[in-house]
Design a protein that fits this description.
The chain has helices at 61-66, 85-99, 118-125, 143-162, 180-183, 185-193, 208-213, 227-231, 255-274, 282-297, 306-309, 318-329, 347-360, and strands at residues 6-9, 17-18, 35-38, 55-56, 69-70, 73-79, 103-110, 132-138, 167-172, 197-203, 221-224, 244-245. By secondary structure, the chain is α/β, with parallel strands linked by helices. Strands 2-8-7-9-10-6-11-12 form an 8-stranded mixed beta sheet, sandwiched between helices. Strands 1-3 form a two-stranded antiparallel sheet. It is elongated, with a radius of gyration of 21 Å.
């Protein structure tokens, strides 16, 4: 892509699918009246100071507590089929589009046509066609096409930011080229300077413990889906012990947040170590029971899943989430049964649910 190449940008693209050259590929006609800009307008020079890290609240308890997202940064979402990876992305997309009046830019390099892309189904299920642009290229191993696809998405996303909108950039890209993201320094610079939160999908190709031990390197956070939690129907099935974020190393999070997250992980690790023990002391039994309540409380009804669960979606602020888990760690809700914490939003709902269960019993 040379300096003279321009790309279509703006709201004319919403609901459309284009290729990396900015050409429509969705059989909906030309992009009439679209403004065009050069990618170079949004490049960030080497050595430019990065803005101070900020938290991008999602309203999802397990994400906000254990793997908080940066506002502008690279986040990896790891998982295989059937573990709810796309549903997590869909919930974040929904939040950007509805709660924050933002837009979503999707990048996809996959086999077949764009109609077969998992992102296409995700956009439709969330009814976000009018808030989304997709840049699609058939799967290939061309680094030139890969980089052009990323740059086209960055140009569109950056222009929306110039219009004052929050933007989520999603990448469902050729796995053989994923490592090129580490070398695409301009991607890191642009998304951080322009506060474009970027979510890159990674299909599960190796044991999750191996993924978890891989340094974040160019990433800012990693959300790892757990097949074991999915089998237990602990949705969202985000691994509580391996999902993490660089924000814990910054001043973007409160000290209470950091302490509560660390204590939750320690409690879950200790309970995991005790699960095969034949006999437990009274104190160890309390650890196991409290850990189970916390595991249940991490579950949460999603707004995008309302048609399937018939439960209203729940959104908690980071402050509410941190205070809630601090209370659970302190044992303030040890009198409630585990079932009271399943698939709810707040702790007040756990109290109300317990009363209903008692009345039904």
């Amino acid at each position: 892509m040379n300096a003279q190449t321009t790309l279509p940008v703006g709201k004319t693209l919403l609901g459309r699918v284009i290729n990396s050259l900015g050409e429509p590929v969705d059989n909906k006609g030309p992009l009439t009246g679209a403004q065009r800009v050069a990618f170079e307008e949004y490049m960030v020079p080497d050595g430019a100071p990065e803005p101070a890290p900020r938290v991008r609240e999602t309203g999802i308890k397990v994400v906000d507590l254990l793997s908080p997202l940066p506002l502008g940064g690279l986040v990896e979402l790891v998982g295989g089929n059937g573990v709810g990876k796309l549903v997590v992305a869909e919930e974040i997309m929904y939040d950007v589009a509805t709660r924050r009046n933002g837009y979503v830019v999707c990048l996809a390099m996959e086999e077949g046509s764009y109609e077969l892309s998992p992102l296409t189904d995700t956009i439709k299920e969330a009814s976000l066609q009018d808030r989304t642009v997709m840049v699609f290229e058939p799967q290939n191993d061309s680094r030139e096409v890969f980089q052009r696809t990323v740059r086209t998405g960055l140009t569109i996303a950056s222009h929306f930011r110039d219009l004052g909108h929050e933007v989520l950039l999603l990448g469902y890209l050729n796995q053989s080229l994923q490592n090129d993201l580490a070398n695409l320094r301009e991607l890191e610079r642009i998304v951080r300077q322009r506060a474009i939160t970027t979510l890159i999908f990674r299909d599960e190709e190796e044991p999750l413990h191996t993924v978890a031990q891989t340094p974040l390197a160019h990433l800012d956070a990693r959300i790892i889906m757990s097949r074991e939690l999915a089998r237990q129907r602990l949705w969202p099935a985000i691994d509580r012990l391996t999902s993490t974020s660089r924000l814990f190393e910054t001043g973007a999070l409160s000290e209470q947040h950091k302490q509560v997250a660390q204590q939750v992980r320690q409690l879950l690790q200790r309970a995991q170590a005790l699960q095969d023990a034949r006999q437990l002391s009274a104190e160890e039994q309390q650890v196991v029971r409290r850990a189970r309540r916390i595991q249940q409380f991490f579950t949460q009804p999603f707004f995008v899943a309302e048609p399937f669960t018939e439960l209203p979606g729940e959104y908690l602020t980071i402050s509410e989430t941190v205070d809630s888990f601090a209370a659970l760690l302190a044992g303030r809700y040890d009198n409630l049964p585990e079932q009271a914490f399943y698939f709810i939003g707040t702790l007040d709902q756990a109290i109300a649910k317990n009363k209903i269960m008692q009345n039904q019993g």
